[in-house]
């Protein structure tokens, strides 16, 4: 960025000095540092705003409300799962109306979609802050609806015991989570990641 007497000069824009001298639009681009210095033109580095993902932050280091983001992204997961299930709903309707068997591959795929949706929703609800949620939402695990785990691969080898409050601290791969009532009810739940 160039300035002259406190006024910003833009590249490829003609300008006039305070004493009335006019310069063509390409003058700044073609001039030497010595020529610019002679006129009193100062070059300053452009101010670069830090980048941030507007889906999760209002500005650099200014996260959006974590609880609202959880609600928003859980809704997105439900919508995506519903859209994927809708592609094979006709099998279910045909079976209900005519008794025609549903191919096992379709039943397996529908089951996988529901399981992945549940996993994604559970992990979203387990995030502790906006940074953690954002990191998960942009991950391969979150965006993969084809197969495999919906839980990030960087989880801990240490078993984690979960109380009825269901607060879980994740480390690296292979975490085992135990607790009661994780998926509702009062029985023991074990989730190995």
Structural overview:
- The chain is α+β, with helices and mostly antiparallel strands and 193 residues long.
- It has three domains: 2-43, no CATH class; 51-151, no CATH class; 153-193, no CATH class.
- Helix content is 40%, strand content 15%.
- The protein is built from seven helices and ten strands.
- It has helices spanning 27-30, 33-39, 66-86, 89-98, 104-126, 130-137, 140-143; strands at residues 2-4, 7-9, 15-16, 22-23, 42-43, 57-59, 62-63, 160-161, 176-180, 188-192.
- The strands form four sheets. The chain has a three-stranded antiparallel β-sheet, covered by helices on one side. The chain has a three-stranded mixed β-sheet with strand order 8-9-10, with no helix packed on it. A two-stranded antiparallel sheet has the order 3-4.
- Helix 3 packs antiparallel against helix 5 (104-126).
- The two termini are 52 Å apart.
């Amino acid at each position: 960025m160039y300035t002259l007497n406190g006024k910003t000069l833009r590249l490829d824009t003609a300008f006039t000095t305070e004493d009335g001298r006019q310069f063509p639009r390409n003058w700044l681009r073609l001039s030497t540092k010595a020529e610019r210095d002679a006129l009193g033109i100062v070059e300053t580095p452009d101010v670069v705003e830090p980048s941030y993902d507007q889906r999760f932050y209002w500005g650099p280091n200014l996260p959006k409300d974590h609880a609202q983001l959880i609600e928003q992204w859980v809704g997105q997961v439900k919508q995506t799962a519903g859209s994927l299930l809708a592609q094979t709903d006709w099998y279910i309707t045909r079976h209900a109306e005519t008794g025609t068997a549903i191919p096992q591959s379709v039943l397996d795929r529908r089951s996988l979609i529901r399981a992945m949706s549940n996993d994604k929703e559970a992990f979203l609800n387990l995030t502790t802050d906006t940074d953690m949620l954002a990191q998960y939402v942009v991950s391969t695990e979150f965006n993969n609806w084809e197969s495999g785990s919906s839980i990030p691969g960087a989880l801990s080898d240490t078993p984690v015991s979960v109380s009825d409050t269901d607060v879980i601290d994740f480390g690296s791969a292979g975490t085992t989570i135990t607790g009661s009532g994780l998926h509702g009810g009062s029985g023991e739940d074990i989730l190995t990641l």
